[in-house]
Design goal:
The protein is about 20% helix and about 35% strand. By secondary structure, the protein is an alpha+beta fold.
């Protein structure tokens, strides 16, 4: 019985990790990264953050998503059902970069693979430190942008924090 409870708890926790999905918030926020403007879809609530950019087969060169969490914390993202590579930038509550990663497409869930097995094998990309904002952009753009850990990204922090649910 304890094993079953542990499996259920682990699966529940894993399915709460943000991934990518085609249903997203409709509103956008303009963000400048290294002199280039991006129009990022906002993920302001739990459902939108979990779905993320999953199922997308294309991310525009100036597109992506801005995830806003109600409170800062160590964030971990996965590439659940993502069809294209994604670059990710984690920001703390003051808009400073805490980590950045190049996330690669994962193999699809197989017929013989349980949801728990699938979730367990997905690579986790961590903010390393407390983050309240996360930017996802088209894979490969981090190679073109000069973004450094500790750098501040200009966001309307207070307005975004008020919108997060």
């Amino acid at each position: 019985m304890r094993t079953l409870i542990a499996i259920v708890l682990v699966f529940s926790a894993l399915t709460l990790l943000p991934g990518c999905d085609e249903e997203t918030a409709r509103s956008t926020h303009a963000v400048e990264l290294d002199g280039r403007w991006f129009h990022l879809e906002l993920a302001l609530d739990h459902q939108a953050r979990v779905k993320g950019l999953s199922g997308r087969d294309f991310i525009a060169d100036d597109g992506g998503m801005l995830f806003v969490f109600p409170n800062p914390g160590v964030q971990q993202f996965v590439m659940r059902d993502c069809l294209v590579p994604i670059d990710i930038i984690f920001l703390d509550g003051a808009g400073r970069v805490t980590a950045k990663h190049k996330m690669t497409v994962e193999d699809d869930q197989t017929e013989n693979e349980s949801d728990l097995e699938y979730e367990s094998r997905l690579k986790r990309y961590s903010s390393r430190f407390a983050a309240q904002f996360v930017i996802e952009i088209k894979g490969g753009l981090l190679d073109e942008l000069d973004i450094k850990n500790g750098q501040r990204i200009d966001l309307d922090l207070n307005a975004l924090k008020r919108q997060a649910r």
